[in-house]
């Protein structure tokens, strides 16, 4: 009997704790950022980290930048990825449960209170942001509010670039082929084994690099290239532009689908 009472008390305490860590915010399809509730700011504003991960019930993960303006906290870069992933064209209500300074779990309901369908992928999708320098951080460890909020490639990222029309193999095999001659030789070299591929939305994809000696000498780009193709719905005939800021080995390479 005593054990039963003890278990009930522990369960009740857990429920109360979760309620005091639960917050609801709206997802506006016309805004790329979202303000966190003032209650959250008072409860955990001094603890939350610059980058947090939002997990859904199917273990999909979204990394989001937290920025502060005056006494208000915002989800900025990475937040709008939810629009495309869950098809939130009419908006939604997002319930967040704060687990730790860098992690939340979330539930989504549409404007009518119905659960939003959660895509189920094997493995689950993970959207990781390319992290900028930390020179604009404040005393609380949260990035200061800066304009523009949306990510964009700088012109200097494409000092050396090439354009490619993707073929069937590029989007189905899990590998992208880049000719050794020209761009490949200039920005990767034969010693390159991996790089981070940063896309138009500021997400990064860790890619492996292998130099293949076949009838044609080329670089075979693997790793998360397949994930990138799946997440961005790349198809045969899609035009991409890949760029690098310098000659020699580049640890970060940039890609855009906005070629023209």
From TrEMBL:
GO CC field: nucleus
InterPro entries per UniProt: DNA-bd_pseudobarrel_sf
Location(s) in or outside the cell: Nucleus
GO MF annotation, one: DNA binding
Keyword terms, alphabetized: DNA-binding, Nucleus, Transcription, Transcription regulation
Superkingdom of the organism of origin: Eukaryota
Predominant cellular place of this UniProt entry's protein: nucleus
Keyword Transcription among record annotations: yes
Name this protein carries in UniProt: TF-B3 domain-containing protein
